[in-house]
Amino acid sequence: MTDGRSPSLSPRDQWKELLRVTRDPFVERFAAVVSRNSPPAWDALQLPENYAEQQCRLHIPALSRQAITASPETATRMLTARLDKRFRRTDEVYRHLAAGGALPDLSLSRITRSEQPRLGSVPGEIGLWLQREVHYLHCERADTVVHVGAFAPNTDVPALCLSFSPCDREYLLDALTNATHGRRQLAPESVLVLTRSTATVELPMNLVSRLIAWSARELRRCWNSDVFITALNPLLGFDGASLRSAGFVPFALTPMTYQYDEQGLYSTRRVMTGTIGQMLETPPIVWLARSTSRCAQPLVHRMVTVLPNAYLRVKRT
């Protein structure tokens, strides 16, 4: 395997190139059509930032390329009809949060020194509630071992919550080893997975990286963690800028399988309630790693960066 780093590209441009080649132009064009033709009634709903776009993109693979090509407008109506009930439920949740004062304005122009978010642990019941009711996947991770969050003053619900679980996928542990040319075999218990990042309001640009840095210290202190990893799904429109600035390095691509329940809503792989498979071929997701200990920093820095000319594709087992 050759090192994927290109001397002609800066780290920032490498990241942009990686996202470019893991996005499907067909999906991007249709996502733009859906955005322009979403139901006007949705404009009155109170939803998380980018929630509508993420939900629509998550459900595009349920449609076939033929159906989308034949009539993008009809395909859009099919997609939005499936999501309408979910959107209205999320609107109810957000109105409840707003009524309780749990949706503070954290825009950079308004935060004073005394209003800086407090970083700390999130009670398990609140973290799981956010996973279920606010996160775009709408599914709890029962194996979550710790939630951390950024709290605005006088609030019990974090503006941003990060949830971590053990890494129980052998192919990801193997990929970490392969990405360092086998220099070190990480102990499974030293690797945690950032499984959910749930924001309830628009965030200051540096808040995600601040909370990730704080989390790294806490995970090392409380869980003896060396590395934590997370997945970036370009299909959903994420650019990963906050993850890149927080020190994450791409190390693998894995296939992503989409499945849907009888109502046509996305069902996670771990829940396995999906009865309808995807109809559209989709690009892989990108796996990223960040060190949480000094001994692991050189390890992560030496990782093969996943670029178009050096894909580290991993078969899930």
Overall number of strands: 10
- Approximately how much helix is present in the residues? 25-40%
For the record, the CATH architecture stands as: 3-Layer(aba) Sandwich
CATH fold name = Aminopeptidase
Structural classification: alpha+beta
For the termini, the CA-CA separation is 22 Å
* Mass-distribution shape: globular
Q: Detail the poorly predicted runs.
A: 1-6, 308-317
Brief overview:
This protein is α+β, with helices and mostly antiparallel strands and about 325 residues long. About 35% of the residues lie in helices and about 15% in strands.
Protein model, in words:
This protein has 317 residues and is an alpha+beta fold. The chain has one domain: Gcn5-related N-acetyltransferase (GNAT) (Aminopeptidase). It contains ten helices and ten strands. It has helices at residues 11-21, 25-36, 51-59, 65-70, 72-99, 124-133, 170-179, 207-223, 241-245, 297-301; strands at residues 118-121, 146-151, 160-166, 191-199, 227-232, 249-254, 259-260, 266-267, 276-277, 285-291. The strands form two sheets. It has a seven-stranded mixed sheet, with helices on both faces. Strands 8-7-9 form a three-stranded antiparallel sheet, with no helix packed on it. β2 (146-151) and β3 form a beta hairpin. α3 crosses α5 (72-99). The longest helix has 28 residues, at 72-99. The protein is globular.
